[in-house]
Each structure stands twice: as C-alpha cells, then as structure tokens.
Amino acid sequence: MTGNMRNLDDGNSATSANQNAGDELHSSSQARLNILWLKVGGLWPLNTGGRLRSFYLLQALSRWHNVTVVTTHGPADDPEGLKAQLANCRKLHSIPYCPAKKNSARFLFALARSLLSTLPVDLYKNRIPAVKKIVSQLLDSDAYDICIADFLVAMPNLPQQLDIPLLFFEHNVEYMIWQRLEKVQSRVLTRVLLALEWRKMRRYELRCCRRAGMTLAVSKDDQALLSEGAPQGDIVSIATGVDVDYFQPDRTVVELPAEIVFTGSMDWHPNEDAMLYFIDAIWPRILREVPEAATTMVGRNPSRKLRDAADAVGIRLTGTVVDVRPYIAKAAVYVVPLRVGGGTRLKIYEALAMGKAVVSTTIGAEGLPLVDGNHIAIADDPETFAATTVNLIRNQAARESLALNGRELVVQQYSWERVGADFEGYIRELLAREASIRRGRRDCPVTSVPQ
C-alpha cells in the first residue's frame, strides 16, 4: 500500500457486493464473539499496507462479531473518519500518540535508554502507558473471548498477564527487516547498532510467538521462519488480500509505453532503500536503452536525501497523493526493487489487480504465490532488473500476458472477504482448543505477555 489518502466512497456498490460474498463464507449459525483488537500506529487514512490489511479484516469481523478496537493516531491521522468507516465496531478508542522520529532528541533518548533494556528501540519507543491503561480497563470491565495483538509493536502495550486467549497477528518477521537493513548499510556504527537491534528484536519476537495461543503470519515463508525459531509456538499463515473492485484496470487512462511507477510509503526504510537503489544502480541502465523512459515514485513523506537523489536524475517524486490508481494506470511497468523487507507486499497485488506488468526482486515478491514469467517478472541484480524492465517496455504482448495472468489470479483467490473468513476460522480454532484445555483444568489458562 502507498501514501495515498484512500476514499472508500469511490466504490460503495462494489464494496457492498464484496461484503455479501464475504458473508456467504461466514457461518452465521455460530455465536457472535467479543473481540478486543489492539493496533498501535493508527488505522486511518489507509496510507500503509499494514493499515490496509488490518482495516479490511476489522471491517469483515465487525459485521460478524462484537469488536472493540484500541488504536493510536498521530497529527495526520483522522480518528473520527476511522469511527465512521468502522461503524460496525462495538467500541473504538483512539489515543493520540506521535512516536519519536529518527534522529530527533526523543528518539536518541529512547535509543540510549533501550540499550539498557531487553527491548529493541523500535518497540521501546512505542510503549504507551495510556494504551496499556485503557486495555487493562476494558479487560476488567467487559467479558472478551479473545485479544488480538496487531503487529509486534502491540505486544509491549498489553497487560503482563492475560486470562483470555491471545492471537498475535504478525504482518512481518520484524527482526528480518532489521537484519537485512544491517547487510545493506555501509557505515560501521550504523551496522553495529542495527546488529544489536535485530538480535534483540528476534529474541523478543520469538518469545511472543511462544507465548501467544496462536501466531498468524502473512505468508508461508514467514510461517516457516517463525516456526524454526519458536517450534513451541502454534504458528499458521493467512493469505494477503486486495480490493479487486477498487483496484481494477482503468480503460479511460492511456497507458504510456515508457512510463515506470513505484508506489509505497517513502518513510518506511525498506521503500526508501529500494528507491535509492533503483536511482543509483538500475535507472541509468534503463535510460541507456530507453532514453525517453520516465519514472514516477508515489508515496508519502520522502526524505530530503531521496528527494535530492530523484531530482538529480529527473525522476518525479509525488509525496502524498489522494489516489494512486491514476499513476499506476498510466504506467507500462510497475517496479518493486526491494532489497529489505518482511511479510508480503500488498502493493504488488494492487498493481496486478489493475492489470499491470510487475518487475520485482525476490525479496519484493517474497511470500506471494506468484510464478516468475507467468504472473510477475523476478530480477535480483541491477543488470537483470533493468533489462527485464526494458524488455517489457518494448514488448506490449509480454506486458499484457503478465497483466492478464496476474489480474486473474488475485480476483479468483485473494479478495479481502475470503481472507477475512479464513481469519475468523483461525480465531474459532484457537478458541476451540483453549476451551478444550480449560475443560481439563479447573482454572482458565493464563497468557504471560513479554514486556
């Protein structure tokens, strides 16, 4: 997902049709559950992939169950808009919080303090007493069937002891992101700090997988990696979804044969690294073969470093946009040159749903069930990435073949409604197992949450 300000009103009729399809997958004969969902880092507007995944699953679950959401919002977020969009939720508490920005005094203070803590700085700086307090109050005052910790950063904000089942929704293998960042860094001090960070992150992350009743990864690859590190945990996986009615081919927009596009939040380290890598190592090779080529990078909060690098080579950098679809629609090729990352890239499914040919690194397409040469083109070194992109620019038939196959795959198998029904199935599975354990004990099992 990208730094666009998503407006769901653009597709009300399609959304209603999707909801009806999702309701058919859900068993209405089962009792409604009381679900407490904790998501630190905001939910609205939908300008990141994580927000999009969480939002659509909440939208589905809140039609079928009694869902209480606790989240946070920053200065650019819209908590009232979120309440309107998740009107089916039983309660929604959004707490103002702005995490320390990199290199700010607050961040450097948190970094120094975290060196004395078992928590990595990325989690240490997101411990929010107000969130922990309201979660504890809700657990004391209401009877919940299950608690869902959305992203690893939610875990330090839960009470240390939970007497209801805990489902840990793991969008990324977080430590892997930091480990990969270390590998592409050139500065010695930065590499030393990142090495410490990813090792602390790994220890904490795997503890959480062991302690949760179930950990839900977003790909088979992530599931295998977490299971290897935490064999005692119950770790399963769920597919990534896409709104196939919102993201669809736009025949009113003329595709420009030499136009390349990337979409993504530019304030996320892996995306910035990918764009700097593209500018430095891939873009010059493309220009040598296709001098008329143009690239647009779409997404929120690009750094000064990235803006300067893009300006120097004539690449357009938009910042936040209202809607990414026109930018994707006019492009011939969608690129994902990621060298760092975890989880799955929703941006690829969005591009495929819009009928675009996608060129990605293996890491960029990691965890997605896509076949190289059929749904997507995979290229891992600058020469191959540039050559593959140039070939697709020149070969309309090859572009259209990838686009057709990719669109067909996501429409048939990866709508959010189907993913939501699968998510509910895992909730039911965890509750059934915990109920069986409870019947064998006098007291309800207690989950100890790593702090």
Automatic annotation (TrEMBL):
Region spans: Disordered: 1-24
UniProt keyword list: Transferase
InterPro entries, alphabetized: Glyco_trans_4-like_N
Domain Glycosyltransferase subfamily 4-like N-terminal: 56-245
Span of the signal peptide: none
Alphabetical list of Pfam families matching this protein: Glyco_trans_1_4, Glyco_transf_4
GO molecular function: glycosyltransferase activity
SUPFAM superfamilies according to UniProt: UDP-Glycosyltransferase/glycogen phosphorylase
CDD domains tied to this protein: GT4_PimA-like (cd03801)
Top-level taxonomic group: Bacteria
Name of the protein: Glycosyltransferase involved in cell wall biosynthesis
